[in-house]
């Protein structure tokens, strides 16, 4: 396939997914800007609550990659009438996992947030925010499963359409609940969590309606999930979910480490991570395009084509993230000023934001090849690498060189960039060795 056609294929599949990821990033940033106007305690509390929620939903997030890989593989093999069967299994697993997670999160919210922070004002905000978010765990799991189906069938534009509607609803509802607009009660920072939970439920309803109309011929809800297929889905999804859980737990642990440095550092770290996600999520979106392209090629038994897709998407992602990161290292004070007017917070975040903008292109390899390896079925290997570099290297070093030795937020952020570069190097070596090409899913 000529280079121009390959680039067109990446753009056709990847741009809608990347657009969806960018809309998620913009939503996070708008949410942080609205909550930031309420003060550093509210910003820190929402930060803790959101990453505690990330830990909970991470256990169902792996369903997206599992469904997408199996759907794309069946599509590549020509099994038209069974393409949506993995979606059925994904939705069932999402429901079964969400029930205990929701109950545990709701009743243990105060204990979880109190473990992460000592400031009573931060704990109160974080607890109420977290309780609202865990009510939507089932919807989040369903949304990831639906996303996997639409991306796996090369119809990522439908996923983008629904995601944009969901995010617009999220912004409007959250704004109304935070500030008491549109006849809604004024809930403060807690309203941000309630608005997001409601928007997730709206998204699930839209996904269901769209899939019901066009997915019935592919087997959507037409046959009971088979135990054999459920086990196959679990083999793919659970390692990825566990990886996401360990990553989310690592981010929450990072917040705990930063909380030991200070509340101001914790507040600005929430903004910094959301700004970093503005770059990371489009990279993940292009990686999800690689998931489909690699899985489809392997379904056609074309290993060389699958290998080339991985590197092609890495190149596109590297250039894209570099361009998106330019404002971060050119004018960090102006960007941070959109979220807080506190000069102390802006000064704390200026150099970490520069590091984020400069280092993100180096992270493109890990972002893309992680998803490509998931598409090839190497979910256990991906989990092992991410666990080792995050938990055995980065987090211990961040604690020792941060609060234990009196280091600043800047020191922690530098270590995080080094950690991402190491991940990129490891995944590049793994992709070149091609062990993933022999995995049968």
From TrEMBL:
CDD domains, per database record: MATE_like_7
Entry GO terms, CC: plasma membrane
Membrane-related topology note: Multi-pass membrane protein
Ion transport keyword on record: yes
GO molecular function, one term: xenobiotic transmembrane transporter activity
Cellular compartment(s): Cell inner membrane
InterPro entries: MATE_fam, MATE_MdtK, MdtK-like
Membrane-crossing residue ranges in chain numbering: 12-30, 50-71, 91-109, 129-150, 162-182, 194-212, 233-259, 271-293, 313-335, 355-379, 391-415
PANTHER family for this protein: FMN_FAD EXPORTER YEEO-RELATED, MULTIDRUG RESISTANCE PROTEIN NORM-RELATED
NCBIfam families noted in UniProt: matE
Protein name: Multidrug-efflux transporter
């Amino acid at each position: 396939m000529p280079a121009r056609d390959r680039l067109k294929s990446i753009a056709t599949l990847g741009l809608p997914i990347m657009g969806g990821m960018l809309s998620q990033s913009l939503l996070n940033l708008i949410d942080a800007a609205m909550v930031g106007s309420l003060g550093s305690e509210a910003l820190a509390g929402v930060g803790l609550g959101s990453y505690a929620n990330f830990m909970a939903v991470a256990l169902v997030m792996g369903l997206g990659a599992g469904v997408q890989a199996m759907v794309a593989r069946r599509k590549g093999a020509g099994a038209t009438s069974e393409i949506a069967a993995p979606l059925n299994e994904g939705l069932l697993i999402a429901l079964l996992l969400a029930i205990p997670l929701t109950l545990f999160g709701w009743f243990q919210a105060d204990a979880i947030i109190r473990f992460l922070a000592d400031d009573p004002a931060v704990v109160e905000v974080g607890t109420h925010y977290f309780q609202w978010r865990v009510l939507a765990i089932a919807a989040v799991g369903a949304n990831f499963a639906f996303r996997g189906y639409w991306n796996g069938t090369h119809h990522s534009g439908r996923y983008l359409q629904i995601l944009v509607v969901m995010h617009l609803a999220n912004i409007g509802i959250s704004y109304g609940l935070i500030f008491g607009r549109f006849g809604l009660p004024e809930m403060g920072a807690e309203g941000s969590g309630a608005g997001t939970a409601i928007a997730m439920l709206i998204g699930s309803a839209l996904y269901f309606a769209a899939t019901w109309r066009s997915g019935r011929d592919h087997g959507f809800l037409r046959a009971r999930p088979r135990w054999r297929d459920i086990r196959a889905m679990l083999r793919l999804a659970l390692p990825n979910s566990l990886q996401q859980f360990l990553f989310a737990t690592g981010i929450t642990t990072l917040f705990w480490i930063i909380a030991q440095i200070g509340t101001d550092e914790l507040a600005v770290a929430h903004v910094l991570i959301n700004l970093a996600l503005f770059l990371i999520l489009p990279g993940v979106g292009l990686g999800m395009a690689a998931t489909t392209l690699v899985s489809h090629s392997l379904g056609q038994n074309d290993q060389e084509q699958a290998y080339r897709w991985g590197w092609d998407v890495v190149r596109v992602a590297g250039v894209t993230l570099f361009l998106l990161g330019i404002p971060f290292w050119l004018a960090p004070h102006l960007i941070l000023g959109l979220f807080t007017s506190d000069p102390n917070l802006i000064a704390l975040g200026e150099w970490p934001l520069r590091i984020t903008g400069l280092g993100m292109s180096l992270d493109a390899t890990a972002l893309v090849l992680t998803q490509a390896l998931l598409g090839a079925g190497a979910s256990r290997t991906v989990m092992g690498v991410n666990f080792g570099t995050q938990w055995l290297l980065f987090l211990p070093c961040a604690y020792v060189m941060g609060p234990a030795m009196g280091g600043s937020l800047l020191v922690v952020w530098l270590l995080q960039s080094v950690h991402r570069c190491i991940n990129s190097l490891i995944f590049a070596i793994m992709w070149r060795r091609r062990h993933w090409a022999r995995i049968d899913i």
